């Protein structure tokens, strides 16, 4: 059976996004089955508009140039790749209700679910990560 | 330095992690089992990543050649049939026996029927390279009366090669049973700046 990787994304900055999507795409490319549960500020990473302009941490804005120089793919590109390789994206219903967000506010091809949706996937995961 | 032959070359120059891996996966999906891909990358992390990727996906990492900042990684797509098939050729020699023969200084002919990229990274010194797919057309390079020790990675391709040679009148061919995957004797490779799969 293939390796299962379960990731929780609960922060909404650019650094957080790279941590989540780099691990997710690398795992998927290595034939792992991957699911990411996006909750609280993590929802920014799959929000239609927000994921195009994620903030760098305060005082770290100068890294924008570093990302460009190192030829790092953009977050929307990484998200697309992740989805293409079958990474399952789950948005947290409870946070969406708190923030008054609808499924249409997010990129296409996501699932919406509660904590158990994620737990059901994560219960026999080989790798569990929280960002 | 001689080029290492690959069935496909993939350009990942200038790309950062995880792109070389993602591109390699996609390209590998399109290859036929047994084919060799050359992945060109400048990401230094890719040396370790490619090896980890191969280990986890079951493909064969052959090695890496470094040319300045350019890294050329060689991988061979695994075949489902690499789950060992029963070998059919009756005349065999174990790795240990062959190693002893070589060490004794006896003049020993070794024919390596793996892909050129596999041969480039680790081979028995003095072994002649003819990939299994070219054996029939290049048989004229061999002498039917010679005692020839045929080797590949695990003894499967060499088993087929032995049967083919015997059919064509070669009288003294022997299949090296375990093959290069378990070879503990001396080896040589093409260049100095190479990192070979630590078998």
Automatic annotation (TrEMBL), chain A:
InterPro entries: DsrE2-like, DsrEFH-like. It holds the Pfam family DrsE_2. This is Peroxiredoxin family protein. It comes from Paenibacillus rhizosphaerae.
From TrEMBL, chain B:
It comes from the Bacteria. GO terms for molecular function: transferase activity. The keyword Cell inner membrane does not apply. Pfam families: Rhodanese, TusA. Residues 104-189 form the Rhodanese domain. Keywords: Transferase. This is Rhodanese-related sulfurtransferase/TusA-related sulfurtransferase. It comes from Paenibacillus rhizosphaerae.
């Amino acid at each position: 059976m293939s390796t299962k990787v379960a990731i929780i994304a609960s922060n909404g900055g650019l650094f957080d996004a790279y941590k989540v999507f780099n691990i997710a795409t690398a795992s998927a490319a290595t034939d792992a089955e991957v699911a990411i549960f996006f909750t609280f500020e993590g929802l920014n990473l799959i929000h239609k508009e927000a994921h195009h302009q994620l903030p760098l941490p305060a005082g770290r804005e100068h890294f924008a140039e570093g990302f460009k120089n190192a030829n790092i793919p953009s977050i929307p590109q990484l998200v697309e790749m992740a989805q293409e390789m079958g990474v399952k994206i789950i948005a947290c219903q409870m946070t969406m209700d708190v923030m008054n967000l609808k499924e249409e506010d997010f990129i296409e091809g996501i699932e919406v679910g509660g904590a158990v949706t994620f737990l059901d996937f994560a219960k026999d995961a080989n790798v569990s990560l929280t960002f | 330095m001689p080029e290492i032959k690959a069935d496909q070359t993939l350009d990942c120059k200038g790309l950062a992690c995880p792109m070389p891996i993602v591109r390699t996966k996609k390209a590998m999906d399109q290859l036929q089992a047994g084919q060799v891909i050359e992945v060109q990358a400048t990401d230094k992390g890719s040396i370790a990543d490619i090896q980890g990727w191969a280990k986890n996906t079951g493909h064969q990492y052959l090695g890496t050649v470094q040319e300045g900042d350019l890294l050329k990684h060689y991988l061979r797509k695994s075949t489902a049939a690499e789950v060992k098939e029963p070998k059919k050729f009756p005349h065999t020699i174990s790795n240990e026996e062959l190693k002893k023969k070589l060490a004794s200084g006896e003049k020993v002919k070794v024919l390596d029927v793996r892909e050129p990229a596999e041969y480039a990274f680790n081979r028995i010194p003095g072994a002649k390279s003819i990939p299994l797919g070219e054996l029939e057309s290049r048989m004229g390079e061999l002498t039917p009366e010679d005692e020839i020790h045929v080797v590949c990675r695990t003894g499967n391709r060499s088993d087929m090669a032995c049967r083919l040679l015997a059919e064509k009148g070669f009288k003294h061919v022997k299949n090296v049973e375990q093959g290069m995957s378990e070879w503990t004797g001396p080896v040589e490779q093409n260049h100095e700046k190479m990192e070979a799969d630590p078998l």
